[in-house]
Amino acid sequence: MTDGCDRDGVAEKARREPAGDILEFAAEPEGPADGGRRNPPWLILIVDDDQEVHAITRVVLGEMTFEERPVRFLSAYTAKQARSLLAEHPGIAAILLDVVMETDDAGLKLVRHIREDMDNRQIRIILRTGQPGQAPERQVIATYDINDYKAKSELTAQKLYTTAMAALRSYRHIVTIERSRQGLERVMEAADHLGGLRSRPQFLAGLAGRAAALVTDVRSALMCGAGEGGRPAVVVGTGLPVEDLPAEIAADIMAALADGQPRWGARYGVVVLRGRDAEPLALCLLGGPFAEGDRLLVELLCSKAAVGLDNLRLYERLNEAQVATVHALGKLAEYKDEVTGDHVKRLGRWATAIARELRARDAFPGELDDWFCDTIGLASVLHDVGKVGIPDAILRKPGRLDEAEMAVMRDHASIGGSILRDACGGDRHGYLSMGAEIAESHHEKFDGSGYPQGLAGDAIPLAGRIVAVADVFDALLHRRPYKKAWDIAEVLDLLRAESGSHFDPRVVDAFLAVLERDGAGV
Questions:
Q1: How remote is the C-alpha of 394 from its chain's centroid?
Q2: Which of 345, 387, 397, 483 is catalytic?
Q3: SMART domains, alphabetically (predicted)?
Q4: 173 and 202 co-located in one domain
Q5: Does the N terminus or the C terminus of the chain have fewer Cβ atoms within 10 A?
Q6: Is residue 4 very low, low, confident or very high in pLDDT (cuts 50, 70, 90)?
Q7: The CATH number of the domain where 448 resides is what?
Q8: 73: three-class secondary structure by DSSP
């Protein structure tokens, strides 16, 4: 290698560790703690069995900096040592690699290890060889994933500097692209997560948390709206209370809410969510500093979240419409049957309590989720909506029904299911769809002797099994035109007696636990 540099005494600056150990140079301070965190050095690994090559490389490149960051050198004298250093320092930017070391192809095998075994495509590999005939350039470039090939004899000090600088610049670009890709993945994953939330407080809290996770060193995240007196009002917040916000940040939040433009300071950032039909909100992140790439990711997430908020509002309106439909259909059934009104209110409370008790027992883990427990109470209102199709003479008959009349009465289960399935329009995840299941199945029996389909066991929808227990309990406990009210002890005896035949025993056990804990509440 010819570079015009004085080699005298240079080799003395290096020290070799005991045989088999990794060699590193002692005089490589990493700088103060803050400098190491904010301005870490670029790592270049020298892999060569010639100690003078290490020493001269350090002399030539020792004062090198790139983008205001110094260069730190790591040294290995064998491919085995290099593997250990690569595993210990995953952020190595470039490797100056000899071909012939402990074996004639040790360097080439190390290239394969880096690219294939480690799956490291970022590190820049510069092959340096003193024996070009041992590894012909055209063949090596075609066969191995290296980034440069240099004969040691051609590497002047200037060419070595240029080669190293080009490698660092290429590594920086690749790392930036990879970080951007990972950041975009996190943004899309966060947007998908937020899109699955069905309450505004959960959505805003989730957005604040996800945005903070995109950027390092964020100590607080606030979702703010416009408050009184020219100050922001916290809607959702973690960390610093809004009252403690510096005046400059509070002013920027209000300004951003007014014009919709983001504000980025040295230690804070403000990005606005502006929906179609709602007052704007501002996300305020405190901490940082915020690199340009971080700012773009936060702004992208907020633009996605603004669309998500609009969609959430549409969902809320659809949900409100479904609730209104449920109440309207419930009123229709109540109009036909005067005992229905109070009965369905109690039934809804019992059904919800049973569902939550079953979930607490970890029963039916594939079915009992938040949606189920939140929906069954209102959906149970619709269990007897099919009675609108039953003649009043049968529905309000004061005595027992004969066989023909009972056959007509039993049609209300199928009628109710049909009405509700038409009303839900194919939506399988709403009050009306669960109401259809309940209307059709709450007269099925666990042993298969019920109606209208004669379903048995777990083939009966869980919502129907729950409502069946609550419906019979409440119906027997209260007076009807055709019967007197039962004593509660009689009702409980019947539930226990019919457990496993009429009723799902798991549902009965959960209901008895609810009654023991909360009382009958009649």
A1: 54
A2: 387
A3: HDc (SM00471)
A4: no
A5: C
A6: very low
A7: 1.10.3210.10
A8: strand
